[in-house]
Amino acid sequence: MMHLLYPNNPLRPRQPDEQIAAELDAVRAAGFEVSLFSMEGFQAGEFRPVPPLPSTTGVLYRGWMLSASEYGSMVSFLVQAGARPVISAEDYLASHHLPNWYSLIFDLTPETRVFPSDCDLETELRALAWPEYFIKDYVKSLKTSVGFRISKPEQVSAVVADMQRFRGVIEGGFCVRRVESFLPDTERRYFVLDGVAHAASGDMPPIVHECAKRLRSRFYSVDVVRQTDGQHRIVEVGDGQVSDLVGWTPKQFAAILAEHFLR
To answer: What is the pLDDT of residue 168?
Structure first.
């Protein structure tokens, strides 16, 4: 039996955060036991799940994105509680940080260059000389202020400043992705568990199955978009524990967890 762990509501500690309440209800209905914990307490070095985690049980976290150090702390807390993390720190970063998955599926996703956070990024972009650049750190792109897609290298300083201002930190370094021609409103999210790809509805593009063959992490999401020429491309991979249910109902998501972890 696997146990699920969710952040609580800071104002009502015995209730889940409002944004994940529907999912929590769905996984309980599917047969899972659930514990809540304070994210604020966790970040301050205190970890007290309610109810306490059952010993020797596998625990799957579902909640907000955690940095590499935060996830390492989560694993340590789980082990100290006598539980077993379903996703190791290594597996978490294998799908959470772009450089760790890019080399395995580089032909299925836009061309990418990775640079350290202390580089002269404007100079690096001039050397690439691409028509356009998509800027992000190892994890996320910037979706506020000036945005994340630029056409001139001199625009990157404003992007970096806003990344630092809005996110507080550049996680890992910079990932510069070549812009491709995607059809609007065609992006879909898929989940892979134990090498098996799942779709919320509709047909599964072959590219998702190919990704599932190459990336061996136990649980991750795959975002796929269609190009103007009709071909599918992978635009993002993410750890399944911190991936939103974009295009999925909580009941659909709970069903695939139950299929893999309650059978």
So the answer is: 82
Whole-model pTM: value is: 0.94
Give the strand pairing for 58-61 and 84-85: parallel
Task: End-to-end CA distance of the chain: give it in Å, rounded.
Answer: 9
Region of 236 (left: φ > 0; alpha: ψ -120 to 50; beta: rest) is: beta
Task: Please state whether beta strands 133-137 and 84-85 pair in parallel, antiparallel, or not at all (unpaired).
Answer: unpaired
DSSP state of 183: -
Distance, CA of 253 to CA of 258 (rounded, Å): 9
pLDDT the model gives residue 140: 75
Helix (H, G, I), strand (E, B) or coil at 9: strand
On whether the CB atoms of residues 5 and 51 are closer than 8 A, the answer is no
What is the CB neighbour count within 10 angstroms for residue 48? 14
**Residue 222 burial by Cβ neighbours in a 10 Å radius (0-12, 13-18, 19+):** buried
Cα–Cα distance between 191 and 237 in angstroms, integer? 10
Q: Is the dihedral of CA 138, 139, 143, 145 positive or negative?
A: negative
